[in-house]
Design goal:
single chain; about 230 residues; mainly alpha; 434 Repressor (Amino-terminal Domain); 2 domains
Length: about 230
Amino acid sequence: MAEQDDGAGFLRCLGQQLKLLRERAGLTRAELGSRLGYGEDQITSVELGRRIPKPELIDRADEVLNAGGVLRAMKEEVARARYPAFFRDAARLEAEAVELQTYDTHVVNGLLQTEEYTRALLTMRRPLLNEETIEQRVAARLARQEIFNKWPAPLFSFVMEESVLLRRLGGASVLRGQLEQILLIGQKTERRGAGDAARPGGQRRCGRRVHVVHTQGRGADRLHGGART
């Protein structure tokens, strides 16, 4: 219960602020949604504190409603509210880190997960999460992957046990997509690492290259990746 309540009060406060500003402007929820490019249902959910608004919705609402930066000032707390209470401090540290090293024994690290893999994990969670909470957490987990687009990016090291790469959470197609995602992220960060050396004053950072993952099973040796460490 504490996990669900933490941050919920802030979202309700944000929703009340949005409602007061909308009513001051003489707009209905449908009219505000039309001006912002969102549906009436989504505006209703935000005002009631049931949905976490996207940053662009907050920026646009602040502008359309002449809020003078009142709504924009809440964006940082809104971003924190996307995560479960137990992970909020970790998310903040992750965003500020210059080096990240992880070791995973059960599932693929959240920074590497595909949307389908994440949704499969959250759907299997007990106690069950409602659909709205699942969608919020999927969006929040995917948003964490923006860290790969930072420059300079942190030095990354992901170590996973072989069983993680063989466990078919969500089914064979979901696992295949997840393995492809790991390779794509590794290749992307390796290319960026090579590109950094060409920047004025840039230095090549070895942490941007992906490790080769080698698995064995039932007589089949497989190499999941080809980038050098």
